[in-house]
Design goal:
heterodimer, A: 85 residues, mainly alpha, Non-ribosomal Peptide Synthetase Peptidyl Carrier Protein, Chain A, 53% helix, B: 666 residues, Glutamine Phosphoribosylpyrophosphate, subunit 1, domain 1, Rossmann fold, 4 domains, 25 helices
Chain lengths: 85, 666
Amino acid sequence: MHQPIRAFIEEQFLIEFGDDFPEDTDLFRAGVMDSFGYVRLCRFLEQTYQFKFAEEEMTSNILVSLTRMEQFVDHKVSRGRAASG
Amino acid sequence: MCGIAGFFQLPQHPGEHAATVRGMLSAIAHRGPDSTGYYVDDHCAFGTTRLSIIDINSGAQPLSDETGRYWICYNGEVYNYLELRAELEAKGRVFQTRSDTEVVLQAWIHWGEACLRKFNGGYAFAIYDRAAAELILVRDRFGKRPLFYTTGGPGFAFASEMKAFFALPDFHFEQDVGQVQSILAQWTPLPHQSGFRHIRNLPMGCWMRVTTGKVEERTYEALTLEPSSTVASEAGALDLIRERLADSVALRLRSDVEVGVYLSGGVDSAIVALLTCDRAKGRVRTFSVEFDDAKLDESKEQRLMAEYLGTQHLGVRVSHGDIATQFPAAIFHAEIPAFRSAFVPMYLLAESTRQAGIKVVLSGEGADEAFLGYDLYKETILRAEWNTAPEQVRRARLAQLYPHLGHYQPQDIAAITGLYHQFAEEKIPGLFSHELRLQNGRFSARLIRSQDDPFRAMREMVRATDGYAALTAVQKAQWLEYKTLLAGYLLSTQGERMTMAHGVENRCPFLDPAVVDAACAVNLRFDDGFTEKRLLRQAFRERLPEAIVNKRKFPYRAPDGAAFAAAPPDYLELLLSEAELSQIPYLDSRFARSLTTKVLANGASETSTKENQTFLFLLSLALLHRMFVKREGMPRRRVHSPVERVIDLRSGAAGYDSQGNFASVT
């Protein structure tokens, strides 16, 4: 489920998650995330997991770490399933 | 315009002094191909390679006062020299020439340090006082002309370009890891940074005194963004802009040779060309860069403007291959790591301009800093009010931002909202306006294996600046732009170093202190700043084609990584070979290789801004390391500058060699 997010971030920002770079690393503070990369990441998540970000969701620090993104995607996808089921 | 170089108390036998200063001047002969002259005594030697523009016949350098106590070597122009000369003559000073060089020398003798605030121009000069045994070095207030100095070895040396230091005995270039990391993170050097250990750039608006065992640096003009007067109405603002710019262009047309204009296709250079045509006696010649890539090309607007004004126009078409081929030569002249390739077309444009017989050009640099032309200013206003502005206001503002950036689309509004939320509060003290840019810089700084804070020098610079903390957010953004991107790249790497590589002097009417003062008086007084340069456009709306005056800011860019991916040049081996990369010990070679592979494999649309800029930084660092540190692979374009004046006051002068022709090493 989460592998595409990890792979996208690693390819996009030329990093490798591991002991030296834990999944809960703040990607802004680590100097990894840039402005265009952030926008591309949003597009990628929307397209891959078939949801839309609401503006109010974007003001709650979702996309700062891989851990936060995975939690948010789980939440979005399960809500989507519940709504459609 | 010229190149200057010299030294003070170099621990070598005076018999070597002449050859050393000739070697230094030879390395920068491209800056002054018309003639060369130098002064040498037992303690000091300095000289000029001259590009003759004012008083061509009697303005040779070095030049002294009537007593022979003071000697000057001078680079650039003080445009208000006629007014200053009249003032000095009224006080009894007598002149031997018509040159501005002599006015600068007499002004220094008469007024001392106080003369510097009277100068309006782009200049760097050295004055040697034989009686006091002291050397004075000065640089203009916006950093238009360069002046580097080194205290790394025994003795003191200075030059317009660092490559002159190749001629110093036992001098070795060494890249300064801390400075390089700082440059990568900021996009450009800070005013004092050179990228090399033991070499300092004399900051803009500063002067220095060098005496035995002592080097003092002082500021004579701090950058001020507070206007000298207020403007009551928009109509008054428009009149003020028109008047100050017309005066500025008129001053910059003072020349004994023909003056051309660089036309970018935007409104700033169009205004400069318009005002030049108002004053010029004959048909004005204009010059532009054209690209095959339609996303970068502005030839339609350039030609429209040239036809509108009836100028004799030359468009220089630049291909991907040209950029890849000329990059090493251009970065050798730039000397500083570069984050874009856009300076390379300017190198080629200057070559064509010189071949067309033009030695002086006017251009539009400085308008975006003065009249708030960059998106950075709008972005700063929006981010500063982000947490308090109503949602509909934020949405409206966001829609006004970045429409020229194709990679942001309307559906990205939620994403950009999230991004701005991350940058709505200051995280790096004093640098709020630039934090989004600096975030991209953090990526480039990953090229360096270092745990240091890459913004430490920048933070310290603003913290140590009197009055900075009291500036508004937009003024801080302006202040930083004047001190970093403008001086550290646009005027230097993309500007002066490229024109002077071919003996062309570039003058910038928007950098006249009176124009900057006018801009400060009108900015954000009569609008909210979200239509960039609205008042400047309005001031000339009736005199320019609609397509020009209404054109949104279109950043001048060139193909970056794509230019090298299309037809990889041989020197890319510097980045692709493990053995080559390992010779630059401070690089994170793993990251460097991953980045290079990605940029060369991906198309232009798949390569992000941060990747492009980091790739260009890496390439320029590797080439500078090869050419400056290892002294290999330097471009060999020979420029001859005949020696026409030698002042040899050494105690054993009769027995020393002091003359001869020489050629530049470029």
